[in-house]
Amino acid sequence: MFPFSSRNKMSDAPEVNPAPAKHTEPHPLDALTGGAFSAATSGERASRIREWLQTQPSAEQLQEVFKELSGRDKGAARAVRERLDEIRRAKGQEAIAAEWAEKAQGLLAAAKLNIADALAWQRDAAKAGAPLSREPLASLKVQLAERMKVIEDLQHRVQVQREAAVLLAQRIEVLSTKPWRDAQAALEALRTDVGRWQQQAQELTDDPSWASVEARFPPLLDASRTQLLVVWDAFQPAVAQAVAASEDPAAALPPVPVWADELRVARGQPSEAAAAAQPAVRPPARSKVDPEVRDKAMQSVRDALGKLERETAEGHGKASAGAAAALRSVLKTHGKHIDAALEQQVHTALVAAGELEGWQRWSADQVREDLVARAEGLLQRPEGQALGGRKMQETLRQLREQWKQADQGGPANHALWKKFDEACNAAHKVVEAWLEKVRADAAEHKAQRVALLDEVKAWTAAQAAAGQPDWKAVNRALHQFGDRWRDGGHVSEKVFAELQPQWKEAMAAAAAPLETAQKDSLARRHALIDEATALGAASTLRVDAVKALQQRWQAEAQSVPLDRKHEQKLWDAFRKPIDEAFNRKSADRDKMAGEISARDRVVLEASKALEEANASGDAQKIRGAMVALEAALRGQALANEAAASAAQNRPATASDNVTSSPAEGAAASEGEGADADQAPPPAAAPKPAPRPVVAVRGDDRPGMKKDAPALPGRPARPGDRKDGRGPRDASGPGRGGDARGDRFGDRGDRFGDRSEARGPRLGDSAFRAQREALEHAQLTLRKLAAQAHGEALTQLIAAWQKRDAAQLPSVQELGVQASVRTAWTQAVSAAPQGDASEALLRLEMAAEVPTPAEQLQARRALQLQLLTRRNDPTPVQTWGQDVARVLASATDETSARRLQNALKTLLRK
User: How many helices (H) and strands (E) in the chain?
Assistant: First the structure.
């Protein structure tokens, strides 16, 4: 019907050509980075970046690529950032290396090098992060080490020369005790040795590094030279004189006593010893010596000789040398007054002291060998026990100090020194690796701190550009910056001294706006405190003004944070005048309350009596006082007085109560409900009896509105419903005396006893006094009960330990049944028998207290057994028998402690 056209209804619209695909232009840095920016995936981009980094690009290219790449792919940019950090660190180390290289060159160029300065250079350079393992610091470090080695070698050679001089002097002294021909034969050898010693001493003083030797060594060398030359200059003429005296009988005898005696015997003359043996030939001067002088001289020689023999026997090389010198000095003074036997002992002791010097050298080698073994063992420790860098450094320092002390006790041993030095150098590589790590960590920590400084400065600029800031967030951010700075890791003292002022300056700039806001807030808060003071001092306290002022304070405190302690002090100053005003208002209200009622007075007196009983600590008195206070609260005393007065005014018949008016009948029924337990219903009096006071919560408390009437038909308590119901409970207006009134008429009696038990409402002071007295009494009773419980438990444990049933506490003290205590008495009285391990486990299960670790397996096994015994009594039911089984067994400290822990809980149940 309708022709269908092949064309669409919208065919008249012009045809739209499809948009060509968008052509993506290559990134300008693709040619530089090998197509990293046009890579399809992040992994491919990171691979191309790593390949590009192997071409060693410049720092400018790295910075440009990192700037573009950090916004696109942070994972691929990490490698570029690490390369930039390496370049930055290398530049920093180059500057540090140049600085410390200049200092090292200054030390090497100085005429006098102090070893302490060279060691300090190496230590401080390591602390500053200088690359000591790279040139030029590595070569300078080696030069300083060689220079220090030369100086230490000079100092060691001075000590060797000093010992050699002492040995030469001892050889000469020993030759003076032997025949003169032996001295003549050894003269040439001694002359050669003395000449060589002087030559070596001169070489020491001519060394270019002699000026760098410590100040104590040159005087030692000069003193040794002087002492040796004095002995040598006296020895040569004595030998020449002895030779001349042997050739010419008329020549004078040498000054050496041994040689002189030998020459006298050769001439046919008696020796001094033989002449002393012949009284006739004895010189007249010898016989004139005072015996006291001779005894004193011999005593002095014997003292010096005893000291030398003692030091020699103990093996003290240096001490024996000093003792030998002291003995020779005494011989020079008193040698002519001693006898031949004592003189022979002196010569024997001096020879023994000379042999000890040789033993001292052997002992020093033993010490050196031990040090070499310890140095070689530093790198041969078991796996897991290797020393760390700092510990290795301290150990090497101690070993070298001990080697120096060993060198002072004997001559040098260069072979052992070479082995020791090689072992120490090998172990020092651990120290160098540790130092490198420390320097790398220090450089990283410094970079972190510098980045934190930049972050704080950027944050400060952003806060300045922003509008009104959130001061709490600002304070939180400042604290976080401070925590990050404190946790930034260890840096050297020099770096910290450079960065700390910058950090303080940056933090001061960042905290300046907050400090300004805090100052303004302090001013506003002080103004609020002044307003609170004026408001509290006013004669009439305006509660609405107080609330408004407190809201303003809270708004100020929430907007600008202060230091917690300072803010608390300000808050205390703000609330003090307001609290004083409220306290003053409460005191005025208490004064205006007037005199207290008779019932309040009774309650106050009972509360005071209870407080006195609490202070006495007697539980019986406290309970009696609590009973008295409860009676006063129920109003029994006043009720008794009211019953007595009502009995006097009671009429002869009760018919008047029926014919009374409805209001009087209601009052009479209320009186009857209030005094039903104390006296018969009173008859109607000529004057209507007052309505009894019924306590209603919420109408007369402090701060409540007293003029708000209670809701009709909904009294505050069930005891008041007979008054609130009114005509519903008795026939009256509005009810017409229908049957429903008779049906529910017994509800007044239903709640009458509760109203009487409660009594009228107390005044505020009486209510607070009785409440505090009761709380104190209950607390005191709990304390006394806990104390009695602890004492009873202690007496029970003591009776078990002594096996004395007389010491068991009574039934009242234990709080158990008489049969249980009888079983315990029999168990304590009998001899120890049985095993109490299972009973103790049952007690701990009953008391639900923990079991010792070694008994946990047994407790689990017992619990499994109890699960299979379904009809057996539980440990809670049989704990008395379990205690008897424990008391029947032998006592020990562990069982007593476990029993005491269980009974602490069980006796309270």
Answer: 36, 0
Q: What's at 634, amino acid-wise?
A: R
Under the banding of pLDDT at 50, 70 and 90, the label for residue 850 is very high
- Dihedral pair phi/psi, residue 106, rounded to 5°: -65, -40
Residue 624 to residues 579, 631, 654, Cα–Cα distance (Å): 39, 11, 40
Q: How far is CA 322 from CA 307, 313, 884, in A?
A: 10, 14, 82
pLDDT digits (tens, 9 = 90+) for 575-600: 899 898 888 888 877 765 555 567 78
Its pTM stands at: 0.30
DSSP state of 704: S
d(CA 236, CA 138): 55
pLDDT for the residue 705: 45
Structure tokens belonging to residue 76: 């691929």
Q: Which residues of 635-669 are buried (b: 16+ CB within 10 A; e: fewer)?
A: bbbbbeebeeebeeeeeeeeeebeebeeebbbbbb
- The total of other beta-carbon atoms located within 10 Å of residue 887's CB is 27
Of the candidates 644, 598, 620, 537, the one whose C-alpha atom is nearest the C-alpha of residue 812 is 620
Q: φ and ψ at 246, to 5 degrees?
A: -75, -30
Sign of CA dihedral 680, 683, 684, 685: negative
More confident residue, 747 or 178: 178
Question: pLDDT tens digits, residue range 731-779?
Answer: 444 444 443 444 444 444 444 444 444 556 677 778 888 888 888 888 8
What phi and psi, each to the nearest 5 degrees, are found at residue 759? 80, 175
Structure tokens at 832: 């120890």
With a CB cutoff of 8 Å and minimum separation 6, the contacts of 753 are 676, 677
Residue 832 gets which letter from DSSP?
A: P
Find the range with the poorest average confidence among 94-98, 313-317, 746-750. Answer: 746-750
pLDDT digits (tens, 9 = 90+) for 127-146: 777 777 777 888 888 888 88
Residue entry with tokens 């230590």: 123
